[in-house]
Amino acid sequence: MRATAPAPVRTCRREIAPRVVSTAKHNAFEEHAQSMGLNPSDVWVGGYVDYEWNHLPLILEAYKIDPRDLCILEFGCNIAASATVLAHLGAKVCAIDVSPALLPLARLNAERYGFPDIDFFCVSDTRTLPFMDGQFDLVICNSVLEYVETEHTASVQREIDRIVKVGGKIFLQGTSNRLWPREVHSRRWFVNYVPRAADRFLGKPLQRGIWPWTARHGFGPHYKNLDAADGGTAFLESRFRMGGPSKAIRALVWLASKLRVGPGMLAQNISCILEKQTSNAG
Asked: How many C-beta neighbours within 10 Å does residue 177 have?
């Protein structure tokens, strides 16, 4: 398949990247990270906001999603890198995580970039979220669903569905795909294919991905996969914006179009944007 350069679209991205505006908060962030045994120089710690800035806005642009004034939840915020970028783009952001240890570092991360108004919540059981029905325009799940206990996954997905408004979206990215022979986070081969029943003989659960049909359909039948709806055009465009898709990505988009699924369903890291068409009751 031959890919062509994308047509220009109205950008949601500001010209100026997020930057540290408080030396005191920056120093506190680095000290707190070190106290947790983390390296502030690590790209997934001190450089995480920069990483998300170079990826997340480009994806939103490709799908023509302007986050300004949208009410957005980062589900599983880690140290709030995505939440900080979204706040910088003008969104009204809430961020939750199951780890009470991470949230102080997440707050400091947002505050050192000048965003003290992000609302943070520790939610130990995400089967019950402290939000109203239809509260959010967009929920972002960045590399998080694969860490939900398997027996809770369906309940968690239904609860996320509850808080997304009709016409709103769920954005899954970085989610380990169980179709692939190598699990992307642990980098272990073939564990995705080992039945979960084997865990009791191993003494601890293996890290596995999730099945793409769980990611696609677990929130309910009332969602449209925008990746499949446009034949993978926005998916491919986002890769152009991040430096150009490889031959493997082009082949993936071609195969997905033949199978009539979103290309992110076949990728090693599941990626899709699901748009809510009706309420669950509808």
From this structure: 22
38 occurs within a structural domain: yes
Is residue 129, in this structure, part of any structural domain at all?
no
DSSP string, 176-207: EBTTSSB-TTT--BSGGGS-GGGHHHHSSPPP
Q: What is the CA radius of gyration of the chain?
A: 19
Identify any residues that bridge with 169 across adjacent strands, giving them in sequence order: 138, 275
162 vs 202: CA distance, rounded Å: 36
> Residue 9 pLDDT more than 70?
no
Band of residue 247 on the pLDDT scale cut at 50, 70, 90:
confident
Percent of the chain with pLDDT over 90: 83
Residues 212, 74 share a domain: no
Maximum C-alpha span of the chain: 55
Q: Using one digit for the tens of pLDDT, what is the confidence trace for 59-117?
A: 999 999 999 999 999 999 999 999 999 999 999 999 999 999 999 999 999 999 999 99
117-128 confidence digits (pLDDT tens): 999 999 999 999
Residues ≥6 apart with Cβ < 8 Å to 134: 162, 163, 164, 165, 166, 168, 279
The number of folded domains in the chain is 2
pLDDT the model gives residue 14: 57
Order of all β-strands in the sheet with 223-225: 119-122, 92-97, 71-75, 136-142, 164-176, 269-276, 223-225
Q: Which of 86, 104, 124 is the last residue of a domain?
A: 124
Residue at which a domain ends, from 124, 158, 178: 124
Beta bridge partners of 164: 136
